[in-house]
């Protein structure tokens, strides 16, 4: 089926690979004009070009989500180049291992500056853009099943994702008056470069095989398989579209049946 523009604009942080890339591709297919925002402008550019470039409603934008001014600049560039702004997907993040005894001030500062602060700046920048444009919008951020249940070996990552859920619940209440909904999506174990790196690191830290590392994250999945990035993108598509207009403050698990509420 040929793509038909829906008149909406979305920005996806961390859109140059993995889940972010899958989200950008899905939203573009849904008819959004899409800004692929990433620290690595080369990978973001490759994704944008694969979608047809600016003429087809896809641009690459440089962003360092740990820096407030950079996030605001990315949103402003998106508004200027794509002529609007309706959805932000705060997807960028890192997932280092963090054994409890090895946590330092520096490791806390680094992961929170990216995973958590980046969502704060994204919420602020999107809210400003929506208000300036005179309409509401949708703010969607990446949580995790590890933000619903603490996972072994990744205490700081889990902490940032729990924090994102709490922030989003409060933002949903504060911003509802402006017609802005705020939700999170919570993936389980997704076949991405980031997850592969994490599984290898967990295995190496334990002196085990890579297969053992994967098993630490994949055991207990009711559907007995890993997730594809496109399956996560499908939930973000729902949260970005009109069928989710009456949903706010929620965290939708996309984990194959790891966490049950």
Automatic annotation (TrEMBL):
Active site residues according to the UniProt entry: 157
The keyword NAD is annotated on this UniProt entry: yes
Catalytic activity: (S)-acetoin + NAD(+) = diacetyl + NADH + H(+)
Family indicated by similarity: Belongs to the short-chain dehydrogenases/reductases (SDR) family.
Domain Ketoreductase: 8-181
NCBIfam families: 23BDH, PRK08643.1
Top EC category: oxidoreductase
Keywords per UniProt: NAD, Oxidoreductase
Protein residues bound to NAD(+): 17-19, 38, 91, 157, 161, 187-192
A single BP term in Gene Ontology: acetoin catabolic process
Protein name: Diacetyl reductase [(S)-acetoin forming]
GO MF annotation: an example: diacetyl reductase ((S)-acetoin forming) (NAD+) activity
SUPFAM superfamilies: NAD(P)-binding Rossmann-fold domains
InterPro entries on file: 23BDH, KR_dom, NAD(P)-bd_dom_sf, Sc_DH/Rdtase_CS, SDR, SDR_fam
